[in-house]
Amino acid sequence: xxxxxxRFTAALGIVLFCSAGTLSAFQNAMPTDSASQHAFTVGEKLxxxxxxxxxxxxxxxISIPKYDTVAAHQCYKxxxxxxxxxxxxxxxEVRDRYETYLDANEIYPWRFEQHVKEGHYRRDFTAEFDxxxxxxxxxxxxxxxxxxxxxxxxxxxxxxxxxxxxxxTGERIHLHNFYKDSTYDLDVQFMGRETIKVxxxxxxxxxxxxxxxxxxxxxxxxxxxxxxxxxxRKIPVKITTKVLIGSIGSELRxxxxxxxxxxxRIK
Length: 267
Fold this sequence. Notes:
Layout: H1 3-6, H2 8-12, E1 30-31, E2 45-52, E3 55-70, E4 73-84, H3 86-91, E5 95-103, E6 109-118, E7 121-130, E8 135-138, E9 141-144, H4 154-160, E10 162-163, E11 172-179, E12 182-198, E13 201-212, E14 224-229, E15 236-242, E16 247-256
Antiparallel strand pairs: 1-10, 2-3, 2-16, 3-4, 4-5, 5-6, 6-7, 7-8, 8-9, 11-12, 12-13, 13-14, 14-15, 15-16
């Protein structure tokens, strides 16, 4: 199996909680009032060590550096960057950047950018979302989208605003995501709770598993699990996915600019 088949970012894009979107039914996961959400704010920065088996392959950073304005709407500028280590880059270099411009009140996107450099592979993709007329513009074409549709990044931040306190193991959240030229379905299954230790500390976590039906970054043979802090912030603490040979994982190394106390951190 080549490193290209592993597709470093496709497997680790889980850090984004990627392929999610419009909530069609969410069982017992209750949405927070978007305008008063306390999960995140400008200044948040999460740094992860990315590992392939026993090898530290790279670093991933999720950040909200500032507010910006898109289509006359105040937005969070959210960035996700993945860079391979110098040693890993000798075999397979990764320099990826994703950006979403997330409506500060409604927690849905007005613009999404993807800039991928993985080995010899290159991809630059931009989508503009008209959340009023329900049209996405990408690659010079327009596509119908459902109300409040998300991109592969904004969905993760929307899920962070949900209240999982009444969720039972096995219950699912039903989502949609627009990517490239289509809208895809994604179920997110609640898997329970666990306390885990990473370099950033010891955290009480909820565990969720994205179940992609078609397309998107989660459509793979490997099972993906995400540990989120079991509090209002719901920051990602750990992500794992199985591949044909071994596993790929990401663990929180450090954080700053969190929107309040991390009550899930116990030491």
